[in-house]
Specification:
Elements (H helix, E strand, L loop, with lengths): L1 H17 L4 E9 L6 H12 L8 E7 L2 E4 L5 E2 L28 E5 L3 E8 L9
Parallel strand pairs: 1-2
Antiparallel strand pairs: 1-6, 3-4, 3-5
Helix pairs in contact: 1-2
């Protein structure tokens, strides 16, 4: 369960930057290709924040879609499967070939992110670090 390790790293970074102030919100950008289970990350975040300056902080997650760019023609696209739009229609499978030229030499340009976008802290007196 790598969400526990991710939660620990997020909390450690937030605590470092909060400089002893209480953290109220942590905003994290998570790429679709990171294979992070958001509910598990939230659950582990709540556990890891206990008895720290992040205790009670809200974790806001922004999901970043996968994005590929064709090395041949430069076209960008999201390879995610598209859901059926009509009853009985099949789901379109993921597309790793360029929809423009059909080439298979794409580079990943989005969807691998895992970064703290920002943290909100309370102003005023510092609290003991945990």
């Amino acid at each position: 369960m790598h969400e526990l390790a991710l939660s620990r790293a997020i909390v450690e970074a937030a605590l470092r930057h909060a400089e002893g102030r209480r953290v109220t919100v942590v905003r994290v950008r998570v790429g679709a290709l990171r294979q992070v289970v958001r509910e598990s990350l939230r659950f582990n975040f709540e556990i890891v924040t206990r008895d720290t300056a992040c205790d009670g902080a809200r974790l806001e997650l922004e999901l970043i879609a996968a994005q590929l760019r064709c090395a041949s023609c430069g076209r960008s696209w999201n390879p995610a499967p598209r859901p059926a739009t009509e009853i009985g229609q099949l789901v379109t499978p993921p597309s790793f070939r360029c929809p423009e030229c059909g080439a298979g030499d794409a580079d990943v340009v989005g969807g691998q992110e895992l970064e703290i976008e920002s943290i909100d802290v309370e102003e005023g007196q510092c609290i003991a670090r945990g």
